[in-house]
Amino acid sequence: RGGRGRGKKAASEEEEDEDEVPAPRGRRGGNRKAARKGKDGDDEDADDDDDEDGKGPKKRGAGGRGGRGGRGGRGGGRGGRGGKKGGKGKEGDEESEEEEDKKGAKGKKKGGKKGKDEEEDEEEGGKGDKGATGKKGAKGKGKEDSMSEGEMAKLMEEVEEKKKLIATIRNKPWRMRRRLTHLRESQQFVDKFEGALGKGKGRKWYAYKVMMKKKWIKFQRDFENFRTACIPWERKIKEVESHFGSSVASYFIFLRWMYGMNLVLFGFTFGLVVIPEVLMGLPYGSIPRKTVPRAEADSAQDYSVLMDFNGYCKYSVLFYGFYNNQRTIGLLQFRLPLSYLMVGIGTFGYSLMVVIRTMAKNADVGGGDGEDGEFTFAWKMFTSWDYLIGNAETADNKYASITTSFKESIVDEQENQKDENIHLRRFLRVLANFMIICSLGGSGYLIYFVVKRSQEFASRDDLSWYEKNEVMIIMSLLGLVCPPLFETIAELEEYHPRIALKWQLGRIFALFLGNLYTFLFALFDEVNTKLELEGSIRNASLWNMKEYYANFTLNSNDTEATPPPMHPSDIIRGPCWETGVGIEFVKLTVSDIQVTYLTILIGDFARAVIVRFLNYCWCWDLEAGFPSYGEFDISGNVLGLVFNQGMIWMGAFYAPGLVGINVLRLLSSMYYQCWAVMATNVPHERVFKASKSNNFYMGLLLLILFLSLLPVVYTIMTLPPSFDCGPFSGKAKMFDVIMETIDLDLPAFLGTLFSYAANPGLIIPAVLLMVLAIYYLNSVSEAYQGANMELKKKMQMVRLQQKKG
């Protein structure tokens, strides 16, 4: 009775614990306290929890004494249930006695080891003396007998709750001390009871599965760490990022991505075009297109000739003209012309897919930057810092940059109410854009003039080194001079550094693209000239062959004798305009590599050496004044990569070896530029986060990919191939290889299907349908944006009402 009275008092204070899940039999006595703590911790807040901790031992003690009174009526393993119900007073006693009779009957059926003591315990009901004896029997029974299904389900549910708490503990609005306490208790509970969920051998199997699951999670974590460690140049990029911020590191991440993409393109080109021709094609010297002409044989190995990619380089696998037009080659009957065309088209298809996929991944990177003009100071306060900075000097620069941006924002907010300088700023921006447009037009005209002049030089033999390389020198100089000029002019506009960077990128991109297309237009003028000469050269070649056979018959006086074949080096060659275009692209790429590396070596390294060692004996402070240490030119380097990749996409069709040259260039650039930036450059005075710069780079790359596709498609669909070189010689158009394959290798119905698919009557409606789909998706996107803006306005209104209320 004394136990029941104290149990009633405990029950009145802990009404929320009535529905608590009981612990399993045989384990309740040792773990009831931990289970009660874990349950209370999930349901109570911090203040109540502190109060309950002070009263907890008394309550648990009362409940335990009441439990001993109830355990005598239940038999061995049900003492905890009796203790809980025994603390409810007189009304609970009647219900507990009925349940005890039922469970006592079950205990008689199950218990083979209880004996007479347990039967006496069931008859005596609530006596606390024999409840203790029943408790001992429960412990003995719990070790041998498994739990009932109901208790197992409740225990499993409680274990899952503890696991969920462990997984979400960091999201709880609790103090750290309380989090650690609940985390420790939950882990102990899970470790102790998780393996008990089973019967007999099933318990060991479940424990084995739990152990293997934990090992699998650990293996996944270790494998993820290993995969991160295997990312190429990750440590180098992190080192640069810690010294110069994420804006400079974004360039090296972009460079690494470009290297990976070009490595795949290199595998396609060499695996499906170059290697089959080398292994299964005709050897060097067997046919005219694979042989150096006799007139050029003496100087074919000269260094100056090889540096111009003539001589043996011109008649090698690097260029289009080396490949034979046989429909199949080797024992495998490999279709080289079809493979050459499909690799050329697949290069653009794969690049387009990869660029778009990367842009989609980067779409959500960067978060909000407060560019919408709302909560400007909140954005600057909580999102301005670059947490990847690990260098003290860079951190100081970033701190000063944030301070300056706050001052500028305060001034901007004050100046927004004034209109006195808005007209001057607009005038200066218009003037800056006018000057830049004039510079772009002048550079384009200069390149066109130089290319036209080089065509005149082609008929002369007494050319100087400058006259031979005038086009490459002028284009490289324009790439060096114009970007700093644009940056100087952009000072008039007074844009934010991030916006100024995008404007600078766009202008340099326009410069490079204009120069490249001007170069292409002048080059295709030369191609048209060569195509006009091909007819006369072909007739001359045929006439030369007839003369050779006629002279042999006349000299031998035997009309039936078979004349020996003419040596390949003596046959008159056509101009092979495709190889000429490929040589120009390769020379342009190599000259760009040379100029880039020399610029870094002279412009950055030599400058840093002068500032470092002459600063002590100079008239002024070289570090603080002129020339000072150089800053890493993000816009120039990014546009150099994009421009170079555009040349690779356009020139790879005419020079398959150009992809391999570009892979070597990117590989060396990573090490060379990482060394240069760490050894010779200093962090920017205004360090800013990369934000969405990577996606902006991808947008420029996607644009130049589309513009690079146009000349290649024009070549394939419009221009006739050369008659004596390349895999498409002897055909009217290059795409005739596909039609030939459809007619000869595929079933007739597929040929009919392709002819229907190529019908303009189907292509035009398909294009219109795509345009309508794009318009619909764009309209839906604008509608969603409008809905988001309305929701923002409503949230602001609600916030204002809450502030007023």
TrEMBL record:
<dbReference type="GO" id="GO:0005886">
    <property type="term" value="C:plasma membrane"/>
</dbReference>
<keyword id="KW-1133">Transmembrane helix</keyword>
<feature type="transmembrane region" description="Helical">
    <location>
        <begin position="430"/>
        <end position="451"/>
    </location>
</feature>
<feature type="domain" description="TMC">
    <location>
        <begin position="576"/>
        <end position="691"/>
    </location>
</feature>
<dbReference type="Pfam" id="PF07810">
    <property type="entry name" value="TMC"/>
</dbReference>
<feature type="compositionally biased region" description="Acidic residues">
    <location>
        <begin position="41"/>
        <end position="53"/>
    </location>
</feature>
<feature type="transmembrane region" description="Helical">
    <location>
        <begin position="504"/>
        <end position="524"/>
    </location>
</feature>
<feature type="compositionally biased region" description="Basic residues">
    <location>
        <begin position="25"/>
        <end position="36"/>
    </location>
</feature>
<dbReference type="GO" id="GO:0050910">
    <property type="term" value="P:detection of mechanical stimulus involved in sensory perception of sound"/>
</dbReference>
<dbReference type="InterPro" id="IPR012496">
    <property type="entry name" value="TMC_dom"/>
</dbReference>
<feature type="transmembrane region" description="Helical">
    <location>
        <begin position="263"/>
        <end position="284"/>
    </location>
</feature>
<feature type="transmembrane region" description="Helical">
    <location>
        <begin position="471"/>
        <end position="492"/>
    </location>
</feature>
<feature type="compositionally biased region" description="Basic and acidic residues">
    <location>
        <begin position="141"/>
        <end position="150"/>
    </location>
</feature>
<protein>
    <recommendedName>
        <fullName>Transmembrane channel-like protein</fullName>
    </recommendedName>
</protein>
<keyword id="KW-0472">Membrane</keyword>
<feature type="compositionally biased region" description="Gly residues">
    <location>
        <begin position="63"/>
        <end position="80"/>
    </location>
</feature>
<comment type="similarity">
    <text>Belongs to the TMC family.</text>
</comment>
<feature type="transmembrane region" description="Helical">
    <location>
        <begin position="647"/>
        <end position="667"/>
    </location>
</feature>
<dbReference type="GO" id="GO:0008381">
    <property type="term" value="F:mechanosensitive monoatomic ion channel activity"/>
</dbReference>
<dbReference type="GO" id="GO:0060005">
    <property type="term" value="P:vestibular reflex"/>
</dbReference>
<feature type="transmembrane region" description="Helical">
    <location>
        <begin position="338"/>
        <end position="356"/>
    </location>
</feature>
<feature type="transmembrane region" description="Helical">
    <location>
        <begin position="753"/>
        <end position="777"/>
    </location>
</feature>
<feature type="transmembrane region" description="Helical">
    <location>
        <begin position="696"/>
        <end position="717"/>
    </location>
</feature>
<keyword id="KW-0812">Transmembrane</keyword>
<dbReference type="InterPro" id="IPR038900">
    <property type="entry name" value="TMC"/>
</dbReference>
<feature type="region of interest" description="Disordered">
    <location>
        <begin position="1"/>
        <end position="150"/>
    </location>
</feature>
